[in-house]
TrEMBL record:
Function comment: Involved in the breakdown of putrescine via hydrolysis of the gamma-glutamyl linkage of gamma-glutamyl-gamma-aminobutyrate.
PANTHER family assigned to the protein according to its UniProt record, in alphabetical order: GLUTAMINE AMIDOTRANSFERASE PB2B2.05-RELATED
EC number from the UniProt entry: 3.5.1.94
Region entry Disordered, spans: 134-154
CDD domains per record: GATase1_2
Name of the protein in question: gamma-glutamyl-gamma-aminobutyrate hydrolase
Length: 254
């Protein structure tokens, strides 16, 4: 393989039951964003839980994307009981991602987390989550509108303010920009070694970076994959991730 080969980006799969059958799946908009906005070759890493071969996954990865999902991180991973049993969980994905995150950072593999992926990174570094942000005093309701139309679910609804001098401010060139909001959970206690990069108007952390990471290591609570090619701050995030993935290709092929 030559130095000009396209980067390979692994997307962590969800383990889902569909029509009474089991599937390892990743949302189409994440796959499309990797293919078009990074750009890179997207490959889905199956959610095999404790059976996931982390070393082999890292060996074929030039970057890792932790996508959003309908499920939540199991609260046992941050020493809480399940608040609402009606909400979906995905222990198989937890078993993949919570092991993969630290190994990826240690190996210098570029890492981008989105929504659930953002929350996974916080939990992997010892942080905790609010299981229902909207029930916390002074916090807004960050859940999506009750609408069947995706254009309404993913509409930009509130600004985020970037931390001056931070990585996200540098990448986007913005001190503030509008984002969508489709999450019920959010960061409570920030994980050790994580640095806040942006906040919502109610003070909720909306972006973090992993301090001391050897490569790109950023996560956001909103969904920058949505309409990414037409939303400059969103595209800037994927392009910066892509630059890091291409740098890893060059390093590995040297």
């Amino acid at each position: 393989m030559g130095q000009n080969r396209q980067p390979v980006v692994l997307l962590a799969a969800d383990y889902r039951q569909i029509d009474k059958q089991s599937f390892h799946v990743a949302g189409g908009k994440y796959v499309a964003a990797v293919a078009k906005a990074v750009p890179a070759l997207p490959l889905i890493a199956p959610a095999l839980g404790a059976d996931s071969d982390i070393e082999s996954l890292l060996a074929c990865a030039d970057g890792i994307l932790l996508p959003g999902a309908v499920s939540n991180v199991h609260p046992s991973h941050f020493d809480q009981d399940v608040l609402n049993p009606a909400l979906p969980l995905d222990p198989a994905r937890d078993g993949l991602t919570l092991r993969l995150i630290g190994a990826a950072v240690e190996a210098g593999v570029p890492l981008l987390g989105i929504c659930r992926g953002f929350q996974e990174i916080n939990v992997a570094f010892g942080g905790s989550l609010h299981q229902a942000v909207h029930e916390q005093p002074g916090m807004a309701d960050h859940r999506e509108p009750d609408s069947p139309e995706q254009s309404e679910q993913y509409a930009q609804v509130h600004p985020v303010t970037t931390v001056p001098g931070g990585l996200l401010a540098e990448i986007t060139g913005c001190s503030e920009f509008m984002v969508n909001s489709l999450h019920g959970q959010g960061i409570d206690r920030l994980g050790a070694g994580l640095v806040a990069e942006a906040h919502a108007p109610d003070g909720l952390i909306e972006a973090v970076r992993i301090a001391g990471a050897k490569s790109f290591a950023l996560a956001v609570q909103w969904h920058p994959e949505w309409n990414v090619l037409n939303t400059p701050p969103y595209l800037a995030i994927f392009r910066a991730f892509g630059d890091a993935c291409r740098a890893r290709v060059a390093q590995r092929e040297a």
